[in-house]
Design a protein that fits this description.
The complex is a heterodimer of chains A (about 120) and B (about 600). Chain A has about 120 residues and is an all-alpha fold. Chain A has seven helices and no strands. In chain A, about 40% of the residues lie in helices and about 0% in strands. Chain B has a four-stranded parallel β-sheet. In chain B, strands 8-7-9-10 form a four-stranded parallel β-sheet, sandwiched between helices. Chain B is about 55% helix and about 5% strand. The chains are: A mainly alpha (about 120), B mainly alpha (about 600). The complex binds iron/sulfur cluster (4 copies). One iron/sulfur cluster binds next to helix 13, helix 14 and helix 16 of chain B.
């Protein structure tokens, strides 16, 4: 994309790295469970999480990281989920969190490398 | 009577014979393959049961009631029952009578498959005899019964509401070929027998046709044409049978002895499950029953009838999608005439989905060791609220208040955070993971030294009952426990004025068969109003954790539909006994308040 130089520019975002977010895994995830795009990062799911009570499980952070293409560290935490469904009950966006977690577990594999396949 | 053709053969029987031999061969091969799919133990169990007199009697009764008379469908809707049983039973009687005729008059032809079917073509009548005319009458009578059934079946295609059905199964091409050839068989038989009625005898159905036909078609060639058409219709039907829903006819003959032998579904598409899948005639009863139909028209394509079809077609993508959507409410199984255990099949399909990320529950051991429930001062009663009740604090609060009122000394199993009971994992097809949770919870429960475990969530309740082995601990749902306390006079409940509609949670009702305890207890607090669809027929609230892929919008529409059923008789209050139902129904309701069972009792103490 050519951006005309107006003498000022947008500050480079450190959150959204376009080339990383178009990771094939994330695209596949959106195809399996498009709800992932609806998350507003409110953190309700994390607040009530049964597994989070005992471990580092953090769904909100995981969704955020995945959308930024930084998944190596965060997906591992999902291995603690008990699928109890508390997060499903509280999510204000009505996200099907359990299916989202299952879909992530189907697609992402820690240690598989982070490059675009 | 004597034979008209000395050879006892005519080329028109060939289409029928080809179809017949094909079906027999197919069934034989399928049976051998099926036996190969059973484990050794199952096979032994199955064959042994075939020789136990009590089982034989049960098999005969079930085959008669289920396959021929369709008693279950009669109970559902008499017209639907008549339609199915008239064709099945009528056809059976015609075949039976055909064989009796052959044995009586030409015993040396009894070995020929086609003889009883085309009996009238080969025979000629000499004078009248009583047994002959009685058989003729019976034959025509059952032909009339079948024709009436077929007329109803045709009418059902146009106007299904007449049969109490909102939706019926959408047929595939091969099913349609089977259907039309089945419809054609009996009118053609009527015409064919009509042509020969003056020679071979007939009764009130065939003789009038004979007069009618002879008055304008005197050419004897027409006779063979009619019999050819009849034979071709039969042959076509039999050739498509193994690939269409009509496979249910032979499959049910195996299904019933297998079911009575006590076999269980162990693999999604093999063995007993396969027999169940093949036995589904696509009657469509489950389509109307399925709460997913409330979410939208396209969701009714996820009912069990279609699951069976997609598995038959071996379409992995489709049957996985269908398996993932289901709420696992169990209603389809409850209404199904072949008791298709679609829940187990769905669970096993889910189990086969591969996951790349392995689970890690290493935190469990430290939780168990930390002594979640202290072993000091053991008390009789332990209360486990569960994950869901933690999201609906009114439930644990009310339960505790009721326990206090009744002066019960109890302990909480999860005062601050718990581990899940494991049922959500099992429903998602990850049962090996669930085992770890089961082990941990079992240790916690045993270390508490309790005798009674009360749970307020029906999901946990079913899990504890079915999957846990809690020796010396009685597991009770809070509805059962409080019902017992009221009955024993330990908990006094004040009678109120409210008119209450009670919603049966799926896991508590159909899952565990608890329908009366909550009703009894609630009627001490208010007056129960009947709900159009309740108990076994109750409609899932839509919140069920059983479904993996239903979206929030779809769930909301189901909840609205379920609530509509509950409020049909204008109650003041909808009451349920499950945290998930409570939340889901309360979200969907804007006029009638939705309350929890314990909450209502609490208000009346
Ligand atoms: S389903 Fe998983 S992520 Fe959601 S609350 Fe339960 S343990 Fe936490
Ligand atoms: S509760 Fe829902 S919207 Fe909020 S962070 Fe979790 S998934 Fe996102
Ligand atoms: S699954 Fe049962 S209720 Fe559904 S179409 Fe088949 S036989 Fe009928
Ligand atoms: S279990 Fe319930 S939701 Fe699932 S197919 Fe059967 S009736 Fe429908």
């Amino acid at each position: 994309m050519i951006i005309t130089d107006f003498g000022y520019c947008l500050a480079p975002s450190n959150a959204v790295k376009v080339d990383k977010t178009t990771d094939w895994r994330f695209e596949k995830l959106c195809a399996l469970e498009s709800d992932v795009l609806k998350c507003i990062g409110c953190g309700s799911c994390t607040a009530v999480c049964s597994a989070g009570h005992f471990s580092q499980m953090n769904l909100r952070q995981c969704i955020l990281s995945l959308s930024r293409g930084q998944w190596e560290k965060s997906v591992r935490s999902l291995s603690r989920c008990m699928l109890c469904g508390k997060c499903l009950m509280v999510c204000p966006r009505g996200i099907n969190t359990r299916h989202l977690i299952l879909s992530i577990c189907r697609i992402y594999c820690p240690g598989e490398g982070g490059s675009n396949a | 009577m004597r034979e008209r053709l000395l050879s006892g053969f005519d080329p028109f029987v060939l289409p029928f014979m080809i179809g017949m031999c094909f079906v027999l061969l197919y069934c034989l091969v399928a049976f051998v393959r099926l036996m190969g799919q059973l484990s050794r133990k199952e096979r032994r169990r199955f064959f042994r049961s075939l020789f136990i007199p009590k089982n034989i009697a049960r098999n005969v009764r079930d085959i008669f009631c289920d396959c021929l008379l369709h008693v279950k469908l009669w109970k559902r809707n008499p017209r639907l029952g008549y339609m199915h049983s008239s064709i099945a039973f009528g056809w059976f009687m015609i075949i039976l009578l055909g064989h009796i005729e052959t044995f009586l008059f030409v015993p040396h032809r009894a070995g020929l498959f086609y003889y009883p079917i085309f009996f009238r073509y080969f025979m000629v009548m000499e004078g009248t005899e009583l047994k002959g005319s009685l058989l003729f009458f019976l034959m025509d009578f059952f032909l009339a019964v079948i024709l009436s059934g077929i007329a109803l079946a045709v009418y059902k295609r146009i106007h299904r509401a007449f049969f109490g059905m909102r939706r019926t199964t959408r047929l595939s091409l091969i099913d349609l070929i089977g259907l039309y050839s089945l419809w054609a068989i009996f009118p053609l038989r009527w015409i064919a027998e009509g042509f020969t009625a003056n020679v071979a005898g007939g009764s009130f159905m065939t003789i009038p046709i004979n007069w009618l036909l002879r008055s304008f078609m005197s050419n004897p060639e027409n006779i063979t044409a009619a019999w050819w058409a009849y034979s071709i219709a039969l042959g076509t039907f039999m050739c498509v049978l193994p690939y269409s829903r009509y496979m249910h006819i032979p499959a049910e003959m195996i299904l019933i002895p297998m079911r009575n032998a006590g076999l269980k579904v162990r693999a999604a598409r093999r063995g007993f499950a396969l027999v169940q899948i093949k036995s589904c005639p696509g009657c469509g009863v489950c389509i109307d029953a399925c709460p997913m139909g409330l979410a939208g028209k396209k969701n009714s394509m996820d009912a069990s009838a279609y699951l069976a079809r997609q598995i038959r077609r071996n379409n992995q993508k489709n049957y996985r999608d269908i398996a993932d959507k289901c709420l696992m409410c169990g209603k389809c199984k409850a209404v199904c005439q072949v008791q298709f255990d679609s829940i187990s099949v769905r669970r096993l399909i889910r189990e086969a989905v591969p996951y790349k990320l392995a689970h890690d529950y290493s935190y469990l051991s430290s939780y168990v060791e930390s002594g979640a429930v202290s072993a000091e001062n053991p008390v009789e009663v332990l209360y486990y609220a569960g994950c869901m009740s933690a999201q609906t604090p009114v439930i644990p609060r009310s339960v505790q208040r009721l326990l206090d009122t009744a002066n019960i000394s109890y302990k909480l199993m999860d005062p601050d955070g718990s581990i899940c009971c494991g049922r959500p994992l099992i429903l998602a097809g990850r049962s090996s993971q669930a085992r770890e949770l089961i082990r941990s919870n079992t240790r916690i429960i045993h270390s508490s030294g309790c005798k009674i475990l009360i749970v307020s969530c029906p999901i946990c309740y079913r899990m504890f009952r079915e999957e846990y082995k809690l020796k010396g601990v009685q597991v009770l749902h809070y509805t059962e426990y409080f019902d017992m306390l009221i009955k024993e006079g330990r908990l006094a409940v004040r009678q109120g004025e409210e008119r209450i509609a009670y919603h049966d949670p799926c896991e508590l009702g159909r899952g565990c068969g608890i329908y009366n305890a909550p009703r009894r207890a609630l009627s001490a607090a208010g007056s129960l109003v009947p709900v159009p669809k309740e108990k076994v027929e109750s409609i899932c609230c839509g919140g069920s954790l059983g479904s993996l892929t239903l979206s929030y919008q779809e769930r909301s529409r189901i909840a609205v539909g379920s609530l509509k059923n509950l409020t049909a008789n204008g109650p003041d209050l909808v009451v349920t006994a499950c945290p998930l139902c409570l939340k889901t129904l309360a979200d969907a309701s804007d006029s009638t308040p939705v309350k929890d069972f314990a909450q209502v009792l609490c208000e009346h103490t």
